[in-house]
Specification:
The chain is 51% helix and 24% strand. The protein is of the alpha+beta class. The chain has a two-stranded antiparallel sheet with strand order 1-2. The radius of gyration is 22 Å and the shape is rod-shaped. The protein starts with a helix and ends in a 7-residue tail after the last helix.
Length: 87
């Protein structure tokens, strides 16, 4: 394996690993969410109600997409950077 191949493999594996670290940081959700259901308390009537708030939550689907694309590109680059010695 030459130096270009090593760099491409290291970058793609670290991108895939970073995608799964982001998924773990956001709480291991299966699907990516853009809104979250929050309980709010009404002080006047002493009741609670639910409200949708804008909040991005990273999901497994986004992590798999990023990891798959990076590994696919890394595999292509691995074969592109191959030394072709003609005898």
């Amino acid at each position: 394996m030459n130096s270009k191949q090593k760099i491409s493999v290291q970058v793609t594996v670290s991108l895939a690993f970073a995608a799964f670290l982001a998924w773990a940081y956001f709480g291991f959700n299966t699907f990516t969410q853009t809104k979250v259901l929050i309980d709010k308390k009404d002080e006047l009537f002493d009741t609670t109600y639910k409200v949708w708030e804008e909040q991005f939550v990273w999901g497994l689907d986004l992590s798999l997409l990023i990891a798959g694309l990076s590994l696919l590109v890394g595999g292509v680059l691995y074969f592109v950077f191959k030394n072709r010695n003609k005898a």
